[in-house]
Amino acid sequence: MEAFTVDKFCKNCGDRLELSADEGLECTKCKCYIHIKCLKRGSVPGGLYGDTFHAFICYECSSDNTESFVRIRLSWLQIIVLVLYHLQHKSPGLARKGFFHWRHHVATFIDKNWEILFPSDFKKKKKWTGTIAGTLSHFNKYIFLSGITVFNEPAFWTLMYPKISPLTISSVYSLMAVEKQNIKLKKEIPVSDAELFSRLLHSCVINKELLKTFNVNSMQIQAETKSDGNDSMDIVEESKKFGDTRSRHKRKNAKHLGITSRKLLRLATSTAALSDDLTNFNLGSPDTDQSSQECKTEDVKPKDVSRLLNPFCHYNTSLSNISRMKGITLQNKLTGGIRQDLILSPYSGMHLKPYIRRDAETFPPWLKLMAEIQLAANSSNPDYFLPPRAPLDYTYVQPEHIPAINSLCNQFFWPGIDLTETLQYPDFSCVVLYKRLIVGFAFLVPDVSHTENYLSFLFTRPYWRNCGIAKFMIYHLIQTSVGKDITLHVSMNNPVLLLYQRFGFKVENVVVGFYDKYVRNDVSESKNAFLCRLDR
Ligand SMILES: [Zn+2]
Ligand SMILES: [Zn+2]
C-alpha cells in the first residue's frame, strides 16, 4: 500500500501531487511524476479527465523532445470508471440528478472515443454495449451506484466515490485478488467483494474527505432547485406536492414564457443598444438575459445563475454586411478545408474526430448533372470513364468554414448572421463538404435552458437537396443532444417541417411574425413560424 501513501512531487512545478485524486503521470524512464496540467502538451491524448492510463515518457527523457504516450490496455471496468469520472467533471450538464444514462451517455461516449480508449488492434465486439450494462450492475454499490431509487429504472448510473481518481479505484480493485488469497490462507471469515473493496479503499486513501460516497439525497435537492419545470421527473415530484393540474399548468406557462421572451430578445438584438446586448451573449458571461428576468417577474420558479446560452446570439446585426463581405475572397466565401487532426472542443474539453462521416455512396443531383455533362462532352471517346467521385464529408465546424458559412447565411437566410460563436461548441455542429465546397451545415445552440438545446440553422445548397444530407445532419445533432429536448423555429410553409416531423418533432406553437425583421418582402417564405420540439 506504499504506492498510495508516499508523497510525490511534480517534476515541472514542484508541487505535491494529490494522492488518490490527482496522481499525475509517472515517466517510465526517470520515474518522476508530473501533473497532467503540467505536461508540455497541456493534456493527455484524447483529453479525458483523470486519464493517467498511459505508458508515459517525459519530454526530458525522450530521444526526440516529444512527450510520448502509449495507451495501457484497459479493462471494461477501468473504461467505465474513467468515462463516468470524465463526464462528471467535464459534462455535468448531461447528468440527471448526478446520474448518467448507461447507453445514451456512457456507451455513446465510448463509441465516439473508441480510438482514444482502446489500442488500435482492439476489436469491437458486436455486443459491446451489453458488456457496459453488465459491468455496471456487477459492481453496483461498491464502484458504481445505480439510480434506480431515484428514477425507478436501472438505466442511470454514477460513481460510488466521485472524488477518487480512476487510477486509485482500479489499483485498489487489483489489490482485491491478493487480499482474497490472504484471507483464504489465514483462514479468516470470507467477506463480500463490496465489503472487501470498501475496506481496502479506506486503508489506502489517506485523505478521508475523498472517501465521501455519492449522496443521492443531496443531489436530488440540488437538482430540484435547479429545475426549470421542463423535466418530466420534476413534474412527477411536483405533482406529489401540489397536485397534478398545478404543475402541468406551471409547465405550460413556463414554455409559453420561453417563447415570448425569445421573441423579445430577437427584437432587442435589432435595436440600437445591440452592442451592449452582445456582450451578454459571450459564453463566459453570467446569465443576465431577459428570459430569466421575465420568468422571475411572472412568478415562475427562478432559474439559477448557471450559464445558459442564448439561441439568438447569432443574430448579430451590428456589422454592416458590406464591410463584412469586403476583404473576403470568392474562394473564402465558397470553401473551407478539413483539418486532419483532432479538434479540441472548448465546450466539452473533448477531442473531436476530423470526420463525423465520409459518405461515398450518395450521388447528389448537382454531381449527377455534372457527370451527365462530362459524359455528353466525351461521348465521341469510347475509352472515356468518369473520374472517381469524392465522398461527402461530414465534419464538425472549424474556423476555416466560418467565412463560407456566414456568406451562405447572408445569401440564403438574411444579412448580418455571424456563426463564429459556434466554434465555442463545435460538438453541436455538422458541416458537409464536397472536396472543399461547403454544401450544407446545421447548428445547435446547447443549453438554452437546463433541459433544452436549440436548432438555430439548417442549410443544404440547392441542387444538393433531397438526397439525405439534411436528414443525416439532423440525425447527428439529435445524437449529440442526449437527454435534452431540441427546439427550433421553422417558417410555416417550409417543406423541411415534414422532415423534422419524421424525426419526432412536434409543433408546439405558432409564432406570428417570427421572421418579420429578417426575411425580405420579396421572398415567398412565410414570416410566421412554428415552434417545434423534440421531447427527450
Ligand atoms: Zn505540476
Ligand atoms: Zn523522464
From TrEMBL:
What the entry lists under Pfam families is as follows: Acetyltransf_1
Q: Domain of life, per the record?
A: Eukaryota
**Annotated Phorbol-ester/DAG-type domain residues:** 1-46
Where is each N-acetyltransferase domain found?
392-530
Gene Ontology MF terms = histone acetyltransferase activity
Q: Where is this region: Disordered?
A: 279-299
SUPFAM superfamilies in the record:
Acyl-CoA N-acyltransferases (Nat), FYVE/PHD zinc finger
Protein name, entry field: Cysteine-rich protein 2-binding protein
Which organism is this entry from?
Psylliodes chrysocephalus
